[in-house]
Every structure is written in C-alpha cells, then in structure tokens.
Amino acid sequence: MTKTALITGASRGLGLALARSLASDGWRLILTARGADALEPVADRLGAVALAGDVADPAHRDRLVRAVRDHGGLDLLVNNASGLGAVPLPPLAGYPLDTLEDLFRTNVLAPLALVQAFLPGLRERRGAVVNISSDAAVEAYEGWGGYGSTKAALEQLSNVLAVEEPRVAVWWVDPGEMHTAMLADAVGAEDAAAAPGPETVVPTLRRLIEERPASGRVSHP
C-alpha cells in the first residue's frame, strides 16, 4: 500500500530534502510552505500535492486536513515549518513580545493543531509524527531565547504526546546546524555556509521512519 506523508516547510531546506527522499521511494506527498512560487515547482518535480499557505492559519490547516482526507489518510506527519523570530537575534530583555507570540503560533501551536487534526487517522494506521526541534531547545545560547523557548515547548508537547498516544510513534529531532536560509538569517551567510547541508540529516529521519524505534528525542548526528 502506498503511504502518505504531509511535510510542512517543504519548499527548501530539510523539508525539501526529506520530500525528495520519500518521493524516490514511492511515497505519496502532500507538501506545504508559505510561498507558492517556490513550493509548486518542487511539487511538480516530485509528483506531489502542493498547498501553499501558513500553518499558523487555521483556514490553511483545514485545507490540509481536506487534502489528506481526499488522499485516503495519513501515515506520517512531519512538522518542519518553523519561524526564527526577531532578527538580529535580540536578548530576552528586549525581545518584542508580539513577535514572540507569533513565533509560538508557528512553532508550537500550529504543529500541535496539526497533530490534533490527524491523530484519529494516525492511530488507526499506526502512523508517526516527526517534530523538528533544535539544540536551542536544551542549550542556553545568547540571543536564541525566543526561538529556543518555542522549540523547548514543542519538545515537551512531543514528550507528553508520546506517552499519551502509544499507537503513534512520536520523534522530536534535533538536526544540528544545517546550511539553510534560516541559519543564514541568524548567523550570516558566511558562517551558515560552513554548516552541513540538510540532506545529511535525511538518513537519520529515514531510519526512524523505516525502523520505527521507540518514541523519543533524537539528535543528529
């Protein structure tokens, strides 16, 4: 039976790298990201369904739910879409609270809302959830308090979800530094270019999906 995955933030970076890998193995893909101009060519190349929009928008999440229903259900939810927050990265003493509130909507509430929407089907199909986290969730990096606090919240939600939903595999994955646009926004293009490409993380994700180890936190490498 063909399996179906929904990947958020799939137009670039780790989301795109994982989508390419799953497509090569025959997965049916539903891909979402904010920008249609970047997402639709990716989906065309991979034979995937593209639904551009903001996962923090409840109306867009409803569209994703309908798309999954139209394709027969979901086996894998990958919550990869993420915001960085205020740039340049500010200390917490001066962090704009309205920006932090928006960041929590994107990085915490949206992933949870998608999990809630798809849980009945994931239980039935013994599916899996991958929540992409960060070492900023567990380490005290100057300037990363806003972003890191959202990832810490996402990790604890994942931790509790793993206990509450034994029929669903739940992994929260720290991919380490990757050469992505987000990292470049945070540390500058030159420093970001020294980081490994997101494709180097894909084997770790594929191992989880294929071998289905116990739910938990996973660090790469």
UniProtKB/TrEMBL annotation:
Keywords noted in UniProt: Oxidoreductase
A single MF term (Gene Ontology): oxidoreductase activity
Transmembrane segments: none
Source taxon at top rank: Bacteria
Family matches, as PROSITE patterns: ADH_SHORT (PS00061)
Family from the record: Belongs to the short-chain dehydrogenases/reductases (SDR) family.
Name assigned to this protein: Short-chain dehydrogenase
